[in-house]
Every structure is written in C-alpha cells, then in structure tokens.
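Entry type: protein chain
Record version: 2
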Amino acid sequence: MAGSRPLTPREERLLLRHIRRINARDRALISAQMFLGFRISEILALTIGHVVHRGHIRDRVALPPRFLKGKRGSTRTVPIGQELRRALERYLFQRAARGPLQPHDPLFLSPRRGEGGQPHAIRRSMAQKIIKRALSNIAPDPQGLSSHSLRKSWGLRLYEASGHDLLIVRDGLGHRSVAVTQIYLPTSADRMEACMRETDWTHRHPRRPKLPAKPGHFGGRTGEGAWEKKRRAA
C-alpha cells in the first residue's frame, strides 16, 4: 500500500505487548500479519488446514499460487515462529471448544454466516479496521501506519537477518522484481552515515587525541604553558 511505512523496533515491541491482551482472534490475525509477511488478502485466504495438521500447529505455512496475489508463481512457504504459534494455539483452542475444526474452514472466521449457513472469513475492511485500531493504541499519531506496515516491517527484518540479501527478501515477500522490493526498504540515516565514514580509507583506526594533563599544558615537563615560561624569564 503506497504511503505505508514500516514500524520502528519500539513500535513493534509496543504492538506485540498490546495484542497479547486483546481477544484471541484479533491477536492471531495481527500476529499472522506481523510474522508471515503475507499481504492482508493472503492472510484472509488462510484456512484451518493451512496451519493445522492432525490436531497440531504446523511448522510452516505453505500458500499455493491460487491464494496469492495474481494467482501465479510458486508456493510461498514461511515458518511458524513461537509467537505466532502461541497466538494460533490460543485462538484455535477457543474455536475447537465451539465445534470441530474443519480443514477447509476459514482461519479468521467471521461471526456472520454466508448463504446456506456456510462459514466465511472476515472481510478485508474489517481486518484492516482491527489492525488500524491496534496501531492507534501504540502510536499517538498513526499516520502512515496500516496493515501493509506489518508486511513492510517483516520484509525489513528479513533484510537485516539475511545480511542485506535483496534476492532473499524478494522471494520472501513474493515480489516479481527486486525494484519493488527496494521500495520496502527505507534507508537508515544512522547506517548511511556509518557507511559514509567507512569510505575514508586513510583512517581505519583513528587515534584518540592526547589531552593536556592540566589547563594550559601544551608541552614541557612542569606543565607550564608558554606564556608562563616567558613571564618567569622576565
């Protein structure tokens, strides 16, 4: 989403702390967006079978091309980490208490039923509203923050973890072009300055300047300044 920015590390920590206190479905939804790197449409396309196998949370989510944007490419596979696993376990435990979990049922279930009483996923507008509400709780001015911010944040973390490998990030985000991936990765001012300093190849190990032992000490054994020596000689 144009105009969306990634979260800062501090905002990510605050968001995680906040969603651990909200209802199980919304926590699982936001955790999935934070830790899978999928688009919101792809998150809402997930079914029970994508994350559960034989009564246990899978080790990874594998999303076939028919669920992806453009419905092309190869299956995107992302590991399920501990934070997302805990959120899914809490949510699905509550779901299972209301009835058996069916593999083809939507993962993020709407309380409303479709035609014929069929279950369906929450709408995209509702999912975005849930995420936006959580973001407004951790940022006084959530300008530029949206559901897509969580995907951009995941891409930025993957970029750092990969040692700044754009090809890994491109494949992780499911982009067709590295040029699109680069848009997700804003340049850090601190990192840019550090890199600029490295261009000065003449002083790889700068020496620390020697400070005078006493005020006015610029040489001599007694610590007397030049003007003191002249005064004494007079």
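Comment: The mean pLDDT is 83.
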